[in-house]
Amino acid sequence: MSDKLRVFWFRRDMRFEDNVGLYHALSGDYNVLPLFIFDKYILDELPKDDARVTFIHDELQKMRSYLQDKYGSSIATYHDTPENAFKKIIEDFDIEAVYTNRDYEPYAQKRDAEINALLAQNGIEFHDFKDQVIFEKTEVEKNDGGMYLVYTPYMKQWKKEFDKIDFKTYPSEDLLDNTYENSRLPNVSLSDMGFERSSIKVPDHNLDKELIKNYDDTRNIPSIEGTSRLSPYLRFGVIGYRKVVKKALSVKDEAFLEELIWREFYKAILYHYPETQERAFKPKYDRIQWRNDEEEFEKWKKGQTGYPIVDAGMRQLNETGWMHNRLRMVVGSFLCKHLLIDWRWGEAYFAEKLLDYEMSSNVGGWQWVAGSGVDAAPYFRVFNPYSQTDRFDKDKKYIKKWVPEFESDKYPEPMVEHKLARERCLETYKEAVKN
């Protein structure tokens, strides 16, 4: 083995198993220094009891302990800007190359370009790999080129492309004896970073075959555990994406697989149209005259709208950091269309609260309910919270769980009448998109 080291930079891939970039880093004549950076640019914007920071920190400590016990190795953790962290690493270690897995969000692409330039100035190579998706960038396109802007044809083409590929795994877990033998690498605690342990815990995920088989029948009923709770684990790569896809393929019903394809669809949209994190995909929707009433926004955030299904969803989010996907659509539609509050306000609140926050899916979902995104609900489709309750929570089990004062004098009256809100919405939207 050479005296020089390779660095493997963990980001959205916090696992040893079937990790593409880690596999390639470990497959050579260099020992590998595992690295994680708690990025100040990101963390400085977060509340000090952020549940995601607790989750990431705990997962890293498990990974560090595993390497220390089995291989006398560890993971170096830093709390800094990526540039400063890499300057320290270059100073403290003799680095041959840095390996990592690709991230497609706008900030991540800018960050990686800057780190690549810094490394190049120091004669260090930068290698990145595809790991968190099956297809990336331009790998699923129309026959004449160009990105699909409607999900169904994208999904059909995704399946055709999948049939052509060699779907393999990368046994990085078998090569960990090539990690750098030093169990006392730098490590930062939550308190070192100015954070405290969150009371919100990420619940266990369920990848059981029965759940996947019944997924299409149960996924819209918020009162039952009909979803996998995989999203935070996929978001941070604690579980490998190929493992989940493989499990989905083992069941004949393809509803679960098609939800995973939605995830890739939104990633591709954000990659091709990074401006959509701030602007409507359909520019005329940026002409909507939002009411943006701050008092009404506060009631929505606290689950005090007087619409039980909306309030239940918001209270679940505030208490647990998670919200059932059906409810994400209902509460999003209510904010944008009943209250005429800018979808970006809702997107930012979800970004602060959701354990599984992922910019591509969140922006895609919010622009969908607002009517302004790709393959979006038409603007004249306004979710009726009462009919949504009748369809998906008829016995009010979900509502009663999260809104205990429901049907009592303590529960507020609806903040706006549904029919009035719908008519106001249609008039406002129609005026914005008429030309």
Automatic annotation (TrEMBL):
Residues 4-134 form the Photolyase/cryptochrome alpha/beta domain. Keywords: Chromophore, FAD, Flavoprotein, Lyase. One of its GO terms (molecular function) is deoxyribodipyrimidine photo-lyase activity. InterPro entries: Crypto/Photolyase_FAD-like_sf (IPR036134), Crypto/Photolyase_N_sf (IPR036155), Cryptochr/Photolyase_FAD-bd (IPR005101), Cryptochrome/DNA_photolyase_1 (IPR002081), DNA_photolyase_1_CS_C (IPR018394), DNA_photolyase_N (IPR006050), Rossmann-like_a/b/a_fold (IPR014729). Its EC number is 4.1.99.3. The keyword Lyase applies. Its cofactor is FAD; (6R)-5,10-methylene-5,6,7,8-tetrahydrofolate. Pfam families: DNA_photolyase (PF00875), FAD_binding_7 (PF03441). PROSITE patterns: DNA_PHOTOLYASES_1_1, PHR_CRY_ALPHA_BETA. Belongs to the DNA photolyase family. This is Cryptochrome/photolyase family protein. It comes from Psychroflexus salinarum.
